[in-house]
Design a protein that fits this description.
The protein is α+β, with helices and mostly antiparallel strands and 88 residues long. It has one domain. It contains three helices and three strands.
């Protein structure tokens, strides 16, 4: 899977969990998860590098969703395990 496909799949998983998405230019270093008016919103920086945005998306997904309770394609799960979990 390329980084565009990974990002699309991750955003699809977020949407499936009820997380709202907003896409727009934020200078290339933006994006991330926040709570607005009681709902969770993920901002996608359309000027950011696709791989960087995929990593931010994976980390946000891990922080919000029990990954063991949803189906995730094996290649996507591998990406999440590699980049989405902060290793101390």
């Amino acid at each position: 899977m390329d980084s565009i496909s990974i990002l699309d799949e991750l955003l699809g998983l977020m949407a499936g969990q009820g997380i709202t998405m907003r896409k727009g230019p934020m200078g290339g270093d933006g994006g991330g998860l926040c709570k607005l008016r009681g709902s969770t919103t993920f901002f996608v920086d359309t000027q950011a590098d696709t791989m960087e945005m995929a990593v931010k998306t994976a980390k946000a997904l891990v922080s919000m969703v029990d990954m063991e309770k949803i189906f995730i394609k094996p290649q996507l799960r591998q990406f999440i395990e590699q980049y989405g979990i902060d290793h101390a």
